[in-house]
Design a protein that fits this description.
single chain, about 325 residues, 13 strands, about 40% strand
Length: about 325
């Protein structure tokens, strides 16, 4: 359903968006654990200056966040492919100069995102830092005349620290994912901020999505299990040599699947089950990305998780979410 796909994409985008605010300093290595739907995946993030590399699912997918170049690089090693996701999208979509028929633009409704942050006042020591307990609620709602009706709620319940190494992408503005609707219908997007609670680097965070009846429909837990300083090679934060660019997740996943099939050897059942679960997530991301961006420039965010996310500010942590929360489309502005 279009509404369901839009809702999950928009919320995930926002989750990615919130991930990356802070001040960058020493090189740091962070190991984290993500638990969702009964499955647990270990992720590793490397932070160096204005860049961060997050390896998800044992390195099956890699997100390189290049704040200095204002873009994310999604990498699929099995396919030796990558996709560039710029933070700043053109305000006017690319059109075909040879087109003779134009579609009239129709004014839609208003989609409002209300972000409420609350500091519970609780404090505890984590990894040598004083962590704050912050609860963030994101509610998305639309007017009846909206082109893409949406009604959703997400809650982020987490513990955050003031870490000097947290990534800073130089922006704290959230721009919701704007789907393309046939017929030239366009909605207006607004964001409201309630509360001034200060987040930071998320060392423990549970994200819960609610359905339209207000009941929890999905949750994921991200927790840092190791945090240490390290000397990192700059090459970790660049596009690998010999890799080729693709324009969407679906293409990259297809190449990855073909590569995996051709190189399949003797693997244990446990390994196969773990990898198939992660690949299924990547495939779903590819399907959503293909469905929602087919009429827009392929570059993508504002972030997965985004994942990377996500920031949607989604593969790291900072003034919002934790590192590997969403390895899908994130858009940062």
């Amino acid at each position: 359903m279009l509404t369901t796909t839009f809702t999950k994409t928009a919320i995930t985008t926002f989750a990615c968006l919130l991930l990356m605010i802070g001040v960058a300093h020493a090189d740091v290595k962070v190991k984290s654990r993500q638990t969702s739907g009964g499955q647990t995946v270990e992720n590793t993030s490397y932070i160096k200056g204005k860049r961060q590399r997050t390896e998800m699912g044992g390195g099956q997918m890699i997100n390189v966040q290049q704040c200095d170049l204002r873009r994310n690089i999604q990498i699929l090693p099995q396919a030796r492919a990558y996709m560039i996701q710029p933070y700043d999208q053109p305000t006017t979509p690319t059109t075909n100069a040879s087109a003779t028929v134009s579609t009239p633009s129709t004014k839609g409704g208003v989609i409002t995102s209300t972000v409420t942050t609350k500091d519970t006042g609780e404090r505890k020591q984590m990894f040598g830092y004083t962590a704050r307990h912050i609860i963030t609620t994101i509610v998305m709602d639309s007017t009846p005349d909206a082109c893409s009706p949406v009604k959703s709620k997400m809650e982020l319940d987490g513990w955050y620290i003031d870490a000097s190494f947290a990534l800073d992408c130089g922006s704290q503005t959230y721009t919701p994912y704007k789907s393309q609707v046939n017929g030239g219908c366009h909605d207006r997007y607004e964001t409201k901020q309630v509360g001034t609670a200060k987040r930071g680097y998320a060392v423990w965070e549970k994200t819960t999505m609610f359905d339209q009846t207000g009941n929890p429909s999905f949750s994921t837990l991200n927790e840092v299990v190791e945090l240490s300083q390290a000397t990192l090679d700059q090459a970790l934060f660049e596009i690998p040599d010999g890799y080729h660019e693709v324009k969407d997740f679906a293409s990259a996943y297809a190449m990855s699947s073909n590569s995996s099939t051709m190189s399949a050897g003797n693997t244990t059942n446990s390994s196969t089950n773990s990898e198939s679960g992660f690949n299924a997530n990547v495939k779903n991301m590819g399907t959503q990305a293909s469905d929602t961006t087919s009429s827009a420039p392929a570059a993508k965010k504002e972030g997965v998780v985004r994942l990377g996310l996500a920031t949607v500010k989604t593969g790291s942590v900072g003034e919002g979410l934790s590192a590997a929360t969403w390895q899908l489309q994130c858009r940062i502005h």
